[in-house]
Amino acid sequence: MSISAKSQAHPLKLGITGGVGSGKSVVCNYFVQKGVTVISADDLARRAVEKGTSAYENIIGCFGPEVLFENGQLNRKKLRSIITRDEKIKRKLENFIHPEVFRLMAVEFNAAVKRKEPMVVFEVPLLFEAGLKDFFDLTVTVCAKKAIRIERMMNRDRVSAEDAEALLKVQMPEEEKIKQSDFIIDNNGTREDLQDLMDQFMRNSSNG
Fold this sequence. Notes:
By secondary structure, the protein is an alpha/beta fold. The protein has helices spanning 24-33, 41-48, 54-63, 76-83, 87-114, 146-157, 161-169, 174-180, 191-207, and strands at 12-17, 37-40, 119-123, 138-143, 183-186.
């Protein structure tokens, strides 16, 4: 399947996903450097739970004030530690946040339509889990070995190996994401290796 084969009036919607620590953000930064608009679902999720929003109020009502910092902002790290150990609570939190994230995604995409951009990239960690495959013209899964992902999380987020592995366990298995994707990007090497893969991806996608 080729990006160039998707001829349409609206911007092509490219969904980037992958498990935590896979390197999604590095891939998306590549597109930014190429001048492509990248919309991060995580950034939209932060906007969706800002103080005073309905999602914020629902979260406080469910989890209590102990998930807040002293300034009243949500302690996202504490929330994450809670949901990695309780699937039912995880789904409840997602039900608070996802509808607003979807709305903001549509707003951002409509703005790109007005700017007549040829392509928009969406970084969506829970793309398949949230049933968003049909929203995109093409989907890409960034993948990496479990041990590499754990090491990246430990270095980036300053979490223990146990906490990193707990987060992996509550996410959709990488193999399932791969089966549902149009493209796969293997990110088991260095940043330079990934840069080369992305250059190749863009060439192949453009050439069909």
